[in-house]
Prior knowledge:
Chain A is an alpha+beta fold. Chain A contains 3 helices and 8 strands.
Amino acid sequence: MSEDNFFSKIQRGELPPPNIAETLNLSFLEVDKENQTLLASFDIGDEFLNPAGFVQGGIVSAMLDDTMGPCLAALLDENQFAPTLSLKVSFIKGANPGKFIGKGKVIKKGKSICYLSSELFDADDDLVATATATAKIVRMA
Amino acid sequence: MSKDSHFWKMQHGEAPRPPIAKTLKSAFIDINLEEKRLSSSFEAGERFLNPAGNIQGGILTAMLDATMGPAIGMLLGKGEFAPTLDLNVLFISPGKAGIFICEAIVTHQGKSICYAEGKLFDEKKRLIATATCTSLVASLKN
C-alpha cells in the first residue's frame, strides 16, 4: 500500500476524479485501510430509470462497482490498477432514484487476484442490492 | 407472448421508452421472437469513464441488462413484467467510449423464472463482456 496510488492522488486533488464519479455524484464518506472497508454516497437522477420507474440494474451495479473498486484501489501501490474480472449482483429491492450509500469491503487482497464485496442501501437505509467481484492487480503502462 | 405487453406498447409508441434508453442512446437493431433473440446498439460517452479511461464496469453491465431485459420482456404476456433477480458479468476487454452492440438470447422461459445470456461487443466486433441473468416473471397488480 502506498500513499501515492491513484486513489490517494485523486483524494488529494493531484489527479482529477474520473468522469463516472461525477455522473453518479459519488463521494467517499469513509476509507478504513486497516479494516479494508469504504463508505461511499451516490445521488442518482431520473435519467437512469428503467420502464418500471426504478434505477436500472446496471446503474445499481455501477454504484456497487464504484464502492468496492475504490476500496481496493485505496490499498494498491503506486502505478497499480485493479480492473474487475467478474461481477455478481443480487437485486433485493427496487431502487428509487435519489441518494444511496455503498458499503465496500476487500475480502482478500492477494498478490494478483483480489475478492471484493459491497452492499447498497437507499435513502431509507433499506438494502437494495449486494455484489461480489473478482479483480486482478496489474501495473499501469 | 402478447402484443399488448409493455415491450410491444413501447415498440408501437403507445408507451414511452424509459429514461435509461435515452441516456445510453440505445436502439433495438434486431428482434427475433422465434429464436428469442434481441440485439441493441448503444453509445456510451466520456461521462462514463473510470480512472483508467475505460467505460466503467457498471455501465457495461447496464448495456447488457438493457438488452437481456427486453429480450425477456418481448416474450411476456399482457400485464407481466420481469425484474432482474441477479446478474453475473465477465469483463473480457476494456470498453472505450463509443458505440456498442449487445446480443441477448433467452435460454429458458419458465412460468415464473427466466434465464438470459448477453454478449457485448465494441464497434470493431471485439468481445467486451458477457453476462447471464435470472429474472422473475410477475404480474402487475390492477
